[in-house]
Amino acid sequence: MNPKVPETLEQAPLAYENAEFLSSPDGRMLRILAEYQEPLGRFRRERIQDTVVFFGSARFRALDVASSELELLANTGSSEAAPKDAQPASPEEIASGEASAQKLRLAEAAVEMAHYYEDARRLAGLVASWAKTLPGRRHRFVVTSGGGPGIMEAANRGAYEAGCKTIGLNIKLPFEQHPNPYITPALSFDFHYFFMRKYWFAYLAKALVVFPGGFGTLDEMFELLTLAQTKKLAKKITVVIYGSSYWKNVINLELLAEKGAIAQADLELFQFADTPEQAFELLKKGLTENHLESEYEREQAKLEKQDDSAPGVHEMLGPDIAKTR
Questions:
Q1: Which residue in 15, 105, 123, 203 has its CB near the most CB atoms, within 10 A?
Q2: Gap between the Cα atoms of 281 and 186, Å rounded
Q3: Angle at which helices 101-132 and 151-161 pack, to 10 degrees?
């Protein structure tokens, strides 16, 4: 008796179209590579050479001209508001004397953070407007943020209002979130892996501005300072810490040097600023001396002046990813 002929098998999925495989532990390496290669391709298409990164709190929404309400978000990057009893006091509560001490403190903090929002917005506009005047086929010192609300939104907004491209490197989190609306659509990214997101922050940045923030801001700031301190990146990075009164109450960096935890020279890795104009002058000076006037930049400028309809070698290289020592 002949055995029963098996039914025709369905076509096996191609490995790169197999969603079950791609989302499995075995597909992790491909997911990591995708978070390198896909952004790289987009940066090339959009002709992004390098960036100026803005870090800062995502927890507060801005004091906008359309509203006098200040709102505290539930979590960093979340689109959900914090509970009502955790919100700052409203102007009505303050006027009536019904606000608790905690709500009054939060209201004062919210006004302070709204002030930093406007400063970040203005500073980003100054940086973007200046960068727009620089010659070359690629976009220089593109304002970049973590893509969320708060200071991140302010940075993207300032660059957007200056008519420039601006980058948002968002991160997938276990609660509802969304990118802010001021990011250039082709330069809006969403990462699964924190370390791949940090890679793109660090390796394209020629300068860093650190506005007041929390755990995430501290983490990102010290990561970049550590790379600069250990000379791991083969480039000079200008670090501006914005809001000296806030930061000197949060961390005592001078004490680290006094106790020998860092070298005295490490205090020269960053500078404090308290106005957008002061911060812009520090950034402009550092970026000009370390990058625009460097021997490497002069050589690349010669290449870009070649009258050739085909893309030059400098353009074909894509973004200026820092080498590692």
A1: 123
A2: 30
A3: 30
CA distance 78 to 149: 8
25 lies in some domain: no
The C-alpha atoms of residue 94 and residue 68 are separated, in whole angstroms, by: 13
Q: In what order do the strands lie in the sheet containing 167-171? A: 188-191, 167-171, 142-145, 51-55, 205-210, 238-242, 271-273
Point out which residues pair with 241 in neighbouring strands. 210, 272
Read off the tokens for 223: 């990561």
Tell me the pTM.
0.82
* Distance from C-alpha of 81 to C-alpha of 203, rounded to nearest angstrom: 33
Range of the domain at 167: 49-68+114-305
- Domains held by the chain: number: 1
Extract the tokens encoding 263. Answer: 């070298």
In a domain, 19, yes or no: no
Q: Which amino acid, one-letter code, is at 199?
A: Y
Q: Is residue 248 part of a domain?
A: yes
Burial class for 317, CB neighbours closer than 10 Å (0-12, 13-18, 19+): middle
Whether 42 is covered by a domain: the verdict is: no
Q: Which of 146, 143, 140 is nearest to 123 (CA)?
A: 143
Nearest to 63 by CA among 100, 20, 129, 108: 108
* pLDDT tens column, 147-156: 998 899 999 9
Tens-of-pLDDT digits for all 325 residues of the chain?
677 877 788 888 899 899 999 999 999 999 999 999 999 999 999 999 999 999 998 876 666 543 445 566 656 656 666 676 666 656 656 556 555 666 667 667 777 778 899 999 999 999 999 999 999 889 999 999 999 988 999 999 999 999 999 999 999 877 656 889 999 999 999 999 999 999 999 999 999 999 999 898 999 999 999 999 998 888 899 999 999 999 999 999 999 999 999 999 999 999 999 999 999 999 999 999 999 987 556 665 565 555 555 555 555 567 988 777 7
Q: Which residues have C-beta within 8 Å of that of residue 140, sequence separation ≥ 6?
A: 49, 50, 131, 134
| Structural tokens at position 38 | 């896909």
